[in-house]
Design brief:
The chain has one helix at residues 2-18, and strands at residues 43-54, 70-81, 84-95, 99-112, 122-132, 141-153, 156-161, 164-167, 176-178, 181-188, 191-200, 202-203, 206-207, 214-224, 230-238, 246-255. The chain has 256 residues and is mainly beta. The chain has a single domain (2-255), classed as Porin (Beta Barrel). Strand 5 (122-132) and strand 6 (141-153) form a beta hairpin. The longest helix is centred in the N-terminal third of the chain and has 17 residues, at 2-18.
């Protein structure tokens, strides 16, 4: 009974957060960052493939419509210490009526607090620099900072990513935007089922009206594959008329 009350309380808190005046959005790497990092000397390879089945239908400045696009990312991660990792990404996309296009690159570092600190929640921080091509963003350079808060309640995992992004170039240069993400996950047999939120609220201090914000919800599933590989799949549904309305996402992770 106590376990059920905890789950209900967590869902209630998450629902409250998501309906606050919580918009650009990253659809190359649709991931809620976990607390864990690669171990010292460990290499990881990840591949992302996301299909924007129902997206935007008109140009936004230089940015092409997303409807029907496939977006891809290839990531290599190296554990520098047991609590610090660095990663690099190459981005690409299959754009209807245009073809396959190089979309940009990213570099990211992620650090986490040691377990020996005995904090009430597991804490981490990711910092990322992105270079994007004009077809995919009017800001050719952006910086992103993602605090990571993770807590387990028995087998239930809760992760919050209150991400902020700063435009370094383009018409929105100097602006900070709030793009929160969250994840609930729990194992069911050999599969881990999850529920994710990915949002774009707009400029910090001047959030867009709720109808113009991005709010997407993703039921997800994670599978353990042979050789220690992991497969993550999900389907995202837009809750407003802004942004992409139907997104299929997939990520595969392989330890090297």
């Amino acid at each position: 009974m106590l376990g059920r009350l905890r789950v209900a309380a967590l869902l209630g808190v998450l629902g409250f957060l998501l309906h606050q005046p919580l918009t650009a959005q990253d659809t190359f790497e649709l991931e809620v960052y976990p607390y864990a990092t690669a171990h010292r000397g460990e290499w990881e390879l990840e591949g992302y493939a996301n299909h924007l089945s129902r997206g935007t239908t008109g140009f936004d400045g230089t940015v092409a419509p997303t409807d029907g696009q496939w977006r891809f990312a290839a990531q290599v991660t190296r554990g520098i210490t047991d609590h610090f990792e660095v990663a690099g990404y190459i981005l690409g996309a299959q754009v209807p009526d245009v073809g396959f296009e190089y979309a940009g690159w990213r570099v990211r570092s992620r650090i986490r607090a040691p377990e020996s600190w005995n904090l009430p929640v597991n804490l981490g921080l990711a910092a990322e620099l992105e270079a994007a091509e004009p077809l995919f963003s009017e800001s050719s350079r952006t910086a992103e900072f993602t605090p990571i808060l993770e807590r387990r309640f028995g087998s239930l995992q809760l992760i919050l990513n209150p991400t902020v992004e700063r435009h370094l170039t383009g018409p929105e240069k100097g602006e900070w935007e709030f793009e929160p993400r969250a994840r609930l996950a729990f194992p069911v047999g050999e599969v881990t089922l999850g529920f994710e939120y990915h949002g774009g609220w707009g400029e910090i201090g001047n959030f867009k009206p709720s109808s113009q914000q991005v709010h997407q919800f993703y039921p997800t599933a994670d599978f353990e594959l042979a050789g220690g590989a992991e497969l993550h799949v999900g389907v995202g549904f837009g809750a407003t008329n802004t942004g992409d309305q139907l997104v299929y996402k997939m990520r595969i992770e392989i330890g090297l």
